[in-house]
Each structure stands twice: as C-alpha cells, then as structure tokens.
Amino acid sequence: MSTESTSNRKDQLARAAFDLIAEVGIEGLRTRDVAARVGINISTLHYYFPTKRDLIEGVAHLLGDIFYQQHAEQPAESMSSLERLRQEFRDARANIEQRPDVMIVLYELVLLSRRHDVIVQMLEPLLAAWRGGIAEFLAEGVRDGTFRSDLDPDAGADFLVSTIWGASALFSTDVTAVERICAEIERSFTGIDYPVSDDT
C-alpha cells in the first residue's frame, strides 16, 4: 500500500472519529463505529490505528490542522496587532456559528486530558502554538502602543484563550453575548471600544 493511500485512509478514519466525538462524546467513541462509518472492518482500522489512543491522537492532529488552516487563511504578516486580536474574535464567532464541532471536540479532549496524561501531551503543542501566537502579537502591540504598556503578553494570552474558550462553551447559541465579552477583552487590553457588528 502506498504512503499516500495510507495517509488518505488515516485521514478518513481520524475525520470519522472526529465527527463521532462531536456527536456522542469521547466516552461514546467506539472503534467499530468509526470503521463502519468509513466502510472498513475493525481489523483494517487497527492496521492504521493499533489502539484507541492512537486514533484519538489522530483526532488531535486533525484538530491542529483545522486551527492551522483557520489561521493560515489570514496571514499574520499583513495584519496589525489589533487586527490579529479582532481576528481571534472573528474566529471564535465563526467556530460558534459554522464549526461548533471543532469546539466540542476540543472540550472533549481537554476533559479527557484531566484523566489521561497522554492526551495532555497531544494537546500541549496545539494549545502552546495558540497561546504563543497570541502572546507574540500582544507583545508587538505593547511595543507599538496599541495595547497597555503594563500588559503582560503571556498572561494576556492565557486570559484571551481561556475567556474565548469559556464563552464559546457557555454561550454556544448566543453570539451576541460572545461579542460583548470580546468587547470587554479589547477594552481591557487597549481601552478602545470593540465595535460589535457583523462587519468586524
């Protein structure tokens, strides 16, 4: 079997597992259901993912690819620090409105990580990249005067990630509430009102 064919099949299985986690939760994930959704038998699935842990790791990698693609569509080099902050807000709104499955799967993996260290190891690179990118543009904004001079970029990144994450979970059907929270985040960083509208 070619490397490309193997990669495609693994991608299909990871996507099927991703979709099932979004539908039934990670505790309800069954490898037989994943195999059936892709149209293969369980033995073939185990050829690609010998254990359920390996399959969940594949889901974590897929989640990382989704976030990477989301950010790749908005090249950071062409955006100011304030524009990048507002892009985080737009991404949060898009995930709530268009890709709620992304946040559901992320929540499921984080909850599982509280009981399984290996899941922590899978998620750490993804979350570190997210926080690191935010800390980078916050630091840039502090240097150029966009953000408060006393803003701690690392703490600000943790604050932004945890607040957007929590808001997306608590207000998954209320985008207006999330917009208000985003407005408060921007005010806390800059003192400038964040325009709450569909054009932001």
UniProtKB/TrEMBL annotation:
Molecular function terms, GO-annotated: DNA-binding transcription factor activity; transcription cis-regulatory region binding
DNA-binding region ranges: 30-49
UniProt-listed PROSITE patterns: HTH_TETR_2
Keyword terms of this UniProt record: DNA-binding, Transcription, Transcription regulation
Domain of life: Bacteria
Coiled coil segments of this chain: none
InterPro entries: Homeodomain-like_sf, HTH-type_TetR-like_transc_reg, HTH_TetR, Tet_transcr_reg_TetR-rel_C_sf
One of the Pfam families matching this protein, by short name: TetR_N
Name the UniProt record assigns to this protein: TetR/AcrR family transcriptional regulator
Organism (species): Natronospirillum operosum
